[in-house]
Each structure stands twice: as structure tokens, then as C-alpha cells.
């Protein structure tokens, strides 16, 4: 049963990330904490998706814009470095509820206000996205929804959106995994789960690549907003 809770979520997590650009760890964190503590589950989810993220980043490498990514990454990573240790000492229930409300509200706003996704965010809002995302990435390994909105606002095409977002996630995964290893959160005991999860995630990525090959940004946006709303509901009720 433990292996089913690793392999099946990893497959569907990669499928979702390959289509919307984010959301993989959200799916895995519904199931992984059933067999692992929160901190270890978050770390496992990040490592499992490393091959998926790396393959997507390589696929869209020509549309990766370093200058658009490095500033947000440094802010995000700084906050995540601090918050990665808080999962063991904080009561995170209220924080999850607040994030859930925020994500559901944002999803409804972007779905109902059709022009909202076509504008760039003011600096203060963009910085808020980076700080909030980094904080929850350190706690739960889930920082994607708000960063997806941020990079979506800078993008004019699916390749640009995916190139920047997957490049960002690749930097994030390598860095925060190193922090978790150094902190003793990720240990050699998790290696069998990591290998099995990577295999399942690779299969999910292959299927996602075939499904999304002919889609444009207009078709992808409703999926992104819808999954942000589902992410918020997950935080509210699980």
C-alpha cells in the first residue's frame, strides 16, 4: 500500500505539472503525509519531481530568461531557507487556511475578470507573491501557485511561461533539496521511494508532453486558474 501512495500520486503529479506548469507537490502532499512526516513528505515530493522539472526546463530552455527569474528566485529562496525549519515547531493549520482562502480568491478573480491575467503586477504585489511562495515552499514544499501567476503575467506564449517557470523550479528544487539534506530532513532511507517516484513521474511527463504539444496560452490559462482554485480548496479542507 505504501508504494501505491508513492507511485500513483507521482505519475499524476507529473502529468499535472507538464500541462499547467505547477501543482505536482500539491498532489503528492495529499498522499505522502499518510506514510511520512510533513517535512520528509515535502522533501520527497521535491526530489521525485526533479527529473520532470529538469526535462521540462530543458525542453523550454530557449525561452528561459535568466534576468526575469534570478531576482524572484533569490527572494523566494531566502524566505524558504528560513521557513524550512518551522514545520517542526509551528502549528501550521491556520497558515494553511489563510493560503487556501488567498488562492481560491485569486482563482475566482482571474476566472471572472477576463482581462486580469493580461496585466503585470505592481512591485509590492509581486514581492508578496515571492515571499508567501517561499514561506510555504519551506514549510510544505508547495510554492508554485503564486509563482505561476507571477510568471504567467510576464508571458506572451506557453514556451515563455513554461521556460521561466520550470527554470525557476529547477533552481528551487536543487537549492531547497540541498538545504533539506544538510538539515537531516532527507536521508538515505528515502532512496527507494525516490527512485520509484522518479520512474512514475517520468511516465507522467511523457504523457503530458503529448497532450500539451498543440495548446496555446489562451487554452492553458483557464486550466492554470482552475488548478490554483483547487489548490486553495486542498489547503482549506485537507
From TrEMBL:
Keyword annotations from UniProtKB, A to Z: Cell membrane, Membrane, Transmembrane, Transmembrane helix, Transport
Main location: membrane
Membrane-topology descriptor: Multi-pass membrane protein
Transmembrane segment boundaries: 34-57, 69-87, 93-112, 124-152, 190-208, 220-237
PANTHER family per UniProt: MEMBRANE TRANSPORTER PROTEIN, TRANSMEMBRANE PROTEIN YFCA
Entry's family note: Belongs to the 4-toluene sulfonate uptake permease (TSUP) (TC 2.A.102) family.
Stated name of the protein: Probable membrane transporter protein
Amino acid at each position: 500500500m505504501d508504494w501505491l501512495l508513492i507511485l500513483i500520486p507521482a505519475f499524476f503529479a507529473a502529468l499535472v505539472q507538464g500541462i499547467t506548469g505547477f501543482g505536482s507537490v500539491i498532489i503528492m502532499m495529499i498522499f505522502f503525509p499518510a506514510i511520512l512526516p510533513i517535512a520528509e513528505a515535502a522533501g520527497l515530493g521535491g526530489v521525485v519531481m526533479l527529473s520532470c522539472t529538469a526535462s521540462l526546463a530543458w525542453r523550454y530552455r530557449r525561452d528561459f530568461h535568466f534576468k526575469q527569474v534570478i531576482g524572484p528566485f533569490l527572494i523566494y529562496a531566502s524566505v524558504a531557507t528560513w521557513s524550512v525549519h518551522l514545520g517542526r515547531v509551528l502549528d501550521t493549520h491556520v497558515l494553511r487556511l489563510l493560503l487556501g482562502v488567498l488562492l481560491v480568491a485569486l482563482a475566482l478573480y482571474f476566472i471572472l475578470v477576463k482581462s486580469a491575467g493580461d496585466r503585470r503586477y505592481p512591485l509590492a504585489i509581486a514581492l508578496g507573491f515571492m515571499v508567501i511562495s517561499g514561506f510555504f515552499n519551506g514549510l510544505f514544499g508547495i510554492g508554485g501557485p503564486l509563482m505561476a501567476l507571477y510568471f504567467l503575467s510576464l508571458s506572451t506564449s506557453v514556451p515563455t511561461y513554461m521556460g521561466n517557470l520550470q527554470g525557476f523550479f529547477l533552481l528551487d528544487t536543487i537549492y531547497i533539496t540541498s538545504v533539506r539534506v544538510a538539515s537531516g530532513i532527507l536521508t538515505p532511507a528515502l532512496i527507494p521511494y525516490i527512485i520509484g517516484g522518479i520512474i512514475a513521474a517520468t511516465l507522467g511527463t511523457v504523457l503530458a508532453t503529448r497532450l500539451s504539444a498543440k495548446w496555446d496560452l489562451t487554452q492553458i490559462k483557464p486550466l492554470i486558474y482552475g488548478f490554483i482554485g483547487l489548490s486553495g480548496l486542498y489547503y482549506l479542507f485537507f
